[in-house]
Amino acid sequence: MEAASLKDGFRVGDWLVEPRDSRASKNDQTFSLTDDQIEVLIVLASRHGEAVDHRTLRNAVWPGCHGSEEKLRQAVGALRELFGDKPRHPHYIASVGNDAYALIAHFEHLAPVAQAPDPLASGYTAQVTLGGRVEHLLVELRRRHVFKVTVSYLVGMWITLQVAEVTFEPLRFPEWWMTALTILAVIGLPIVVVLAWTYEITPEGVVLDAGVDGTGVMRRLPRPRQSIAPAIVAGVTLMAAVTGFAWWRSLDVPATTGATAAPPLEPGARSIAVLPLVDMSSGGGNAYLGDGLSEELSTKLAQIPGLRVAARTSAFEFKDKNLDVRKIGQSLGVRHVLEGSVRRNGDKVRVTVQLIDTATGYHVWAGNFDRAWRDVLALQDDIAVSVTDALQVVLKDDDARRGATQEHKLEARAIEPYLKGLAALRQPHDQSKQGEAQRAFEQAVAIDPEFAGAYAGLCRVHAREFDRTRDRSNLKLAEDACHKSLALNSSLVDTEKALAGLSLSDGDYVAAEAAYRKLLQVNSLDADSYIGLGTSLAGLGRGVEAETSFRQAVAVDPSYSQAYSSLAYYLFERGKIDEATSMLRKVTELVPASAIAWNSLGGALLMNGDFSKALDASSRSLLLEPSKSAYSNIATAYYYLGRFPEAVANAERAAAIGEHDYVIQGNLADALWQVPGRRIDAVAVYHDTIDLAERELEATPGNAALRAQLGYLYGRVGQDEKSRQYLETAAAAAPGIVYVQYFVAVAAADRGDRESALRAIAALVELGYSPLLLRSAPEFRSLLQDPEYKKVIESG
Fold first, then answer.
1. How far is residue 775 from each of residues 451, 467, 484, 541, 610, measured CA to CA in Å?
2. pTM here?
């Protein structure tokens, strides 16, 4: 844009800048600007969103003037102070590296317009046109404070409803109280608006508003207009009465009506949800027992042919919620619900369960089960048989009984830590929860060395720890635990899941795919199996099938945070950053206390170029639980902001935690590379990173992004031939992976191959990579003034 055309005025964010009058205004406040400040702002605005180096700015504003660098610094500092920019989180003028500025706020060029007369100014009369009448109506709405009253009412009612939602349930208020309050809030809105329009508060009391004419003189309203307010109030009152009566009548509908309204199930179809058993023990403290038994029972029922069992994570959403089972059944899409309670008294356990038809709300069957503590896990078999009998599902009772008699007799003291371990595994994959699960399972196997289920739990814990640290000693621990579980009980479903996850962690995608498909044949509603299958297919390069599997995980269990996380990670790698960010926001809503959820969101925001929000999300993750990923994301944000010493400090914290993680080590080397005088240190870290990445590539030879990263790393340490081989292989195998094109582009920019770098950058933008990241990336600083580079970025 030509700088001269901006003399007529333009908007920057919330500010109106008028160069001809040397002033800027916001919210009826006007500030004078110096000629230097105006000229600097015009140059930045003429190249809005671009990095303008200091030399260009000095030549444009102070050509040939001595001391112009100091003048530029003072002018930019004054503008930032005026606009309210924070040093670490600029919203108007951002520093790009150490030698450029960019105007990043919303920019709008204004054509010169005639000054409109003040509608309240003396002597002004609105034109008797539709536009004039609308303008007069808006003036009256402002004068009578209708907007303020409406906003205040909406805010007040929103706060009231939020407080009611939190407090009504603990106070045991009936569910319809919340409905009644919401109806009253909606009905009250038009009443408040009418009252605000009609009446005003004066020293003499509340009186009818007399109105104002076009000259600002008070006048009386015509009688028909004065009488409209009572009519509206009467109409709203009548509407409230009719609505309330209809709602009250709906409460009296017999429960059996739901049976006719509910859609009929397919002939012979059976479906059930197992709700968490409520802890009724004196003194409490046994909630984990009810949760663990519910999960074990869900697993048992899922193995019964013809019986569809709702995912446990969906069922657990209704824990501690006093809801009608008919609504629960409608929400989960099941015909029956199994609910109940568990009571422990010393060495005795009583479990009470009821099978309820969600279409009618009636009990189909109920039963009490008393056992010694040592036999508590055997309850799941007895309850499963009783439930399936009630549902008229044909079971081979002889086989089930025979299998039960051959089971290992558990040591009673091992049951409690085992159930605690299962409860911890249900939580998000935060390190603290994994440590809690590991300690519980280790305690269980210490008590009973032949407890197959506890070994399967340990296998899952160590496999997750390997995924987190890439330390192969954890992989060995997982293998040992899985083999032990398999030797003790080869038919245990938990063992099969653990083995499938182990194959996945070790990069054996073919074996993992087969294992997860087998698990889905047993239970087609298991979200974890769909996630594992999707990860396996992605590793095999079958992207369409992988995405379908991830989306199926979300479909079968829409309240399971890990389903959204896995889909988000897949989309993130394919450049679908916006959709991945949306998925990760959903994760933070489902598990707001999860550190890994906030950190993943921070990583997605980084890729969108929203550095300030990325810092906030990752910092929130650190407050919940320190992790290498959170420190690494914070380091990356500082890296793109050009604050390299802070980037190095946080990358070093990440590397201290993730010493075996090639990604973390590579990030540290990248930050060191940008600090003057530290490239020798960077090269040493690059060599360590190459060793880690080569070992990882041996385990996962199909990882194209890793192969591309190795090509980039070899280029940084001067091994050009190896760099070329790795980059060419990766680009040929997976050109649609964002990180493949990224490393190809950076390596080309490093060796000065402008054309190759521009081709890869164009592919990056086409895949959804943020142009703002490209503008801020130090790796591409040499291309900032290249016309082709600018064209590629603007096209994105």
1. 57, 33, 54, 31, 13
2. 0.46
